[in-house]
Write a structure and sequence with these properties.
about 100 residues; about 20% helix; single chain; alpha+beta
């Protein structure tokens, strides 16, 4: 999924630890490139530009309960740390977060 990110793409920043919630917005500043810290394999990374925190964090439970987000990859494959969003999913997350880009 990192390889599919392009410079300028908007990003919802999601805490995947204990909190499990969308907490901020960012933008891809540099598209995928080889991860300089990788010692084996073909790992890649992207650079993000932090934009701002969301006004209201959106917990995973709220995401899972929202019918508009039922097809979101985070709901179906919650172990993934990076997943794409449709335009509709992104808009709905912003609405739930009480935040504009």
């Amino acid at each position: 999924n990192l390889r599919g990110m392009n410079q300028g793409d908007p990003v919802c920043f999601y805490h995947s630890g204990e909190d499990k919630q969308v907490v901020g917005l960012a933008r891809v500043a540099r598209a995928a490139y080889p991860d300089p810290t990788a010692t084996e394999g073909e790992w890649v990374c992207v650079d993000l530009e932090v934009l701002k925190p969301v006004r209201i964090p959106v917990p995973l439970g709220v995401i899972k309960a929202d019918p508009a987000l039922k097809e979101m990859r985070l709901v179906k494959q919650s172990r993934l740390s990076v997943t794409p969003l449709t335009a509709g999913e992104f808009a709905r997350l912003l609405e739930l977060a009480g935040t504009k880009v």
